[in-house]
Amino acid sequence: MLIFDRSQPGRVNAAQMPPAMDLPSDIPEALLRRQPLVLPEVSELQAVRHYTRLSQRNFSIDTHFYPLGSCTMKYNPRASNALAMLPGFLNRHPLAPESTGQGFLACLFELQEILKDVTGMRGVSLTPMAGAQGEFAGVAMIRAYHKARGDEARDEILIPKAAHGTNPATAAMCGYRVHEIDVKPDGDIDLAALDAAIGPRTAGLMLTNPSTLGVFDRHILDIAQRVHKAGGLLYYDGANLNAILGQVKPGDMGFDVIHLNLHKTFSTPHGGGGPGAGPVGVSERLLPFLPVPIVGESRGHYYWITEKTRPQSIGRLSTFMGNAGVLLRAYVYARLIGREGMPRIAQYAVLNANYLLRKLAALGFEPAYKGRRATHEFLLTLKNLKDTTSVTAMDVAKRLLDKGYHAPTVYFPLMVPECFLIEPTETEGLDELDGFIAAMAEILLEARTSPDVLKGAPHTLPVRRLDEVRAARELNLTWTPPHKTHS
Amino acid sequence: MPFIPHTPADTAAMLEAIGARSVDELFDEIPEALRCGPLTHVPSALTEQQISRLMQERATADGTFLNFIGAGAYEHHIPAAVWEIATRGEFYTAYTPYQAEASQGTLQLLYEFQTMIASLTGMDVSNASLYDGSSALAEAVLMAVRLHGNSRRVLMPETVHPLYRQVVEAIVTAQSIVLETVPAGEDGRTDMDALRKQLPGAAALVIPQPNFFGCLEDAPEMVQLAQEAQALTIGLVNPIACALLAPPGEWGPGCDIAVGEGQSLGAPLSSGGPYFGFMACKRPHVRQMPGRIVGRTVDAEGRDAFTLTLQAREQHIRRSKATSNICTNQGLLVTAATIHMALLGPAGLRQVALASHAHTKRLVARLTAIAGIRLAYPNTPFFHEAVLRIDAPVPDVLRALEAQGILGGYALSEAFAALADGLLVCATETKTEADIERYAEQLERIVSKRRMEPPCAYKDNNQRSL
Question: Is the pLDDT of residue B180 over 80?
Fold first, then answer.
């Protein structure tokens, strides 16, 4: 039932209303609204109950194990939320003077320093509002760098086939042609293919390491050397930083520019699809191009660094200071984890993934890259299962929902058939992992004995499988009052 | 170990199952030379009590002020229930709703949100939100250029928020789109003669309503002119204003795309974010719209259900040919906004708009009664912001007000050379008569004191803008 179905004309929520007023005489009638506003007319209790009940129709980290590959669904500490929502931070206007935001700016400045350390970069800007915007900032800086050197023939970005879809989409948004590079059967980049593609038109290479195949590319130093030799820059997609946090710094691998997903590695909430935060870090030569504003510090006074002192900056990507409240949450998290805790995150994320990989392989699930270590995640291919039982990766995913586990990432990367990308994260304990393994074992048995149960899954959720084709063909994107036809 | 549940026995058992001697061995595919030593700039861990103390001290040090700054972020009352519910773990810690069956709560809420935004803007369809107002405007410009097909020149009035213009510039110029400024006239609105000359051959026109100065543009006429020149129109609106003012769908023949900053709908100021951008459009344009879109459908048993749809536009399917690289919306903020709109209802939202307008009128009347202060555009109607011209150095006045606990407005000198004495002020429904009186009394004292005894010059090292 929609909130609109609970609406009754004339019902008002008086506690939330400023006093009624007449229409103003100083606004011309032609500029006033004519159509009625379609908002629900419900009591406060009705609204609270409706949205509380809706929330109960979600899986979430707080309620379920959520081994979604490349998404790092780890516990989001409550303290991060509570402290980012202190009234002093919450009520501060973004254009209020620096003098009224020294506490806020101190947190951001220290977060910049922490991120510089864990990534091995020389400068960090916190403004990008999501990973994809961080990617945009990174590639825009690569573009600005070549342009500043008068090196404008470089019009291509190289991207491994396994990359997240945002990589090629970002390169295109920055005006680049995309050249995809093959990956070898062992999961590492095909260096011969790289050599064939690289040249004077190469602006840069975008790489995730560990890759979205769940393996660490062992030839990263070779790759970096080749890209740099050709005059290109190396871009690090930090989606998988959780695997190497405090163990390996992207700067040491040779990367010139990176973005991080604070909603992954630094445990800020995913919020049902945002807000994220995608800070960017750069090596020395890209410092002038960082997006603004950045927080500077001088003798204990914090201030905004803007385009005035960074004339070569790629500019602004958000109206004010990105997703400031998300940055505060990441800061709190970083302080709770601390220096000693950072490398432990990678250790236990990797331990959990390797344990799951070993146990699932023993059950008969096929690793996509046999003989390789798992990083913080690993890839299974369910192609054999499909060939022998006609049960697909999607069927297994949906059946997992029935058993109280969120499904892993399915059908990504696109190049591996019937794949399952599984990332347990470090915040899950042995009991939870064993529960998941047991569920997978049950499903494997069901696939052989009663495949129809899987094909019809989920059975226990508020809805069964959806008619996606109908959703796209008979577009219904808004509710309209019953007497009208929907749009 | 914070947030890591493993006991030593667990770890040992897991290593044994894996067949590894140590956790470190699991990193043996990484070249040894790449392993870093201890971190140097990350402080040692704090307990929750210690970090709470630190954050409370910092938040308190930042103080509380009586705020009259608007300029793109507005202080409104947010019902207590909004964030109580939005931060429930089931909303707060859920991922993007790819697994529809396990995400019906978020998906239905997004469908309700789309309905509310479509109605508010007077458009046919809405997406599930973008990052913020300015980046939404950039996406709208890209979308309009794709829809137009023949031109890459987009008209951007000078009356659009200067920070928005900067963001759009940073995002769209890589795709060789040219942004052409349409000058503002003497009345604080877009110069219509200049607009007429610039329109032929343009792909699109951005129409801010109210504009950055708080002034109401002749939006219907602008849409009419643009349509005659076969340019698309992008309405840039404040969602609260849409409850009172004609929304983009009602401007003349109706805008093609409507975008705006959603912060006023339940998001606290929070030093600039997270907020959310909204985007709505005419139905035929929907396949060029970027971002997540939720559709209503049925499940295998014919029950009502909701799912992400039209995903063929998106980066995870189309990669370099996607409509945008955007991969999320601002889910949590949209959750808050939907609950906020449901709690206020049509009458509540309209009364917030009316009160904000009335309070700003009262503020302007009271402040312009002070000698040396006048309204910059006295004959132009405004919504809930207005430009004052002050017969005293604006930064000094603002600093003196700050010392009294008042943030007096946004100085326009930095972005507008012709408005060196300009101050943009805003009073929403949150400002009482007493608040306005307090501001006026202090301002009167400061301005008159300055007239009598001008101070010696000193360095302004307290920057007021980002």
Answer: yes
Domain positions in chain A are 3-55, 79-337, 345-470
Which of B48, B135, B343 is opposite residue A16, by nearest beta carbon? B343
- Fold classification of A79-337 is Aspartate Aminotransferase; domain 2 (3.40.640)
A45 and chain B in contact, CB less than 8 A: no
CB A100 within 8 A of CB B28: no
CATH superfamily of this structure's domain A345-470: Aspartate Aminotransferase, domain 1 (3.90.1150.10)
Q: Is residue B461 part of a domain?
A: no
Read off the pLDDT of each residue in A250-261 and give the average, rounded to a whole number.
98
CATH number at residue B355: 3.90.1150.10
**Does residue B210 form part of some domain?**
yes
φ, ψ at B260 (rounded to 5°)? 175, 175
The ipTM is 0.97
What's the one-letter identity of residue A224?
Answer: A
Most A-contacting residue of B16, B28, B30 (CB-CB within 10 A), to test interface:
B30
The pTM of the full predicted model, rounded to 2 decimals, is 0.97
User: Distance from B371 to chain A by nearest Cα, in Å?
Assistant: 24
The residue in chain A having the minimum alpha-carbon distance to the alpha carbon of residue B4 is A427
Q: Is 70 exceeded by the pLDDT of residue B459?
A: no
CA distance B171 to chain A (A): 7
Contact of B346 with chain A, judged by CB distance below 8 Å, is answered with yes
Joined tokens for residue A185? 């059967």
* Residue in chain B lying closest to A351 (CA): B23
Count of the separate structural domains present in chain B: 2
Cis peptide bond upstream of B274, omega within 30: yes
Distance (Å, whole) CA A260 – CA A127: 12
> What residue numbers bound the domain in which B118 lies?
80-339
Which residues on chain A are in Cβ contact (under 8 Å) with B346?
36-39, 41
Alpha helices in B285-393 (DSSP H): 315-318, 331-368
Label the pairing between strands B304-308 and A156-160.
Answer: unpaired
Helix (H/G/I), strand (E/B), else coil: A437: helix
Distance from CA of A94 to the nearest CA of B (A): 4
Query: Does residue B353 belong to the interface with chain A, where contact is any CB pair within 8 Å?
Result: no
Lowest mean pLDDT among A128-132, A279-283, B446-450: B446-450
